[in-house]
Amino acid sequence: MTQFLTRSLFFSMFIVFRFCSSNGSDEQERTLGIIKPDGISGNYTERIKQVILESGFEISKEMVIQLDEENAANFYAEHSSKSFFTNLIRYMTSGPVLVMVLEKEDAVAHWRDLIGPTNAGKAKITHPHSIRAMCGVDLEKNCVHGSDSHQSAEREIAFFFKEAPSEDAVSQT
Ligand code: CMP
Q: Start and end of every Nucleoside diphosphate kinase-like domain (predicted)?
């Protein structure tokens, strides 16, 4: 009986320890969110920010900026060989954008879930509650941007907020 009680006590302590240590290791992650020119001109900014905050993100930095062609081309350099590149640069420079650093646990994946598929036209059918379904139009005019990985997020945040890129972002390139 005593042995049973001792074992139960150790087992309970083990469970409590695992629970506490897993909570303690929940790390905040950052990602970059952009409300694109159509999102701003369509007056979606406040609705999008409300969704962001209600989804548990902290908006730790934000700024409204008018991109010029050089900024936009540098930001989207990985797409420079794509057929849609010229139109993308025209779109991204057509008006101001709101750039935000969003923080929460697993922020990159959660933000991408929240914004939905790149093609806003398809998002309206497959992900009707997503942000792109709410305010995007099509594959190009998709209203919002989200970093596609932790490394991209750190690089993109450094691009806009002039931080030195973190070690893991640098090691990617
Ligand atoms: P974003 O998530 O910001 O990343 C690259 C952007 O390029 C994308 O959103 C769209 O705005 C645009 N884009 C991606 N694929 C295409 C495509 N096939 N045709 C036109 N625009 C595209």
A: 28-168
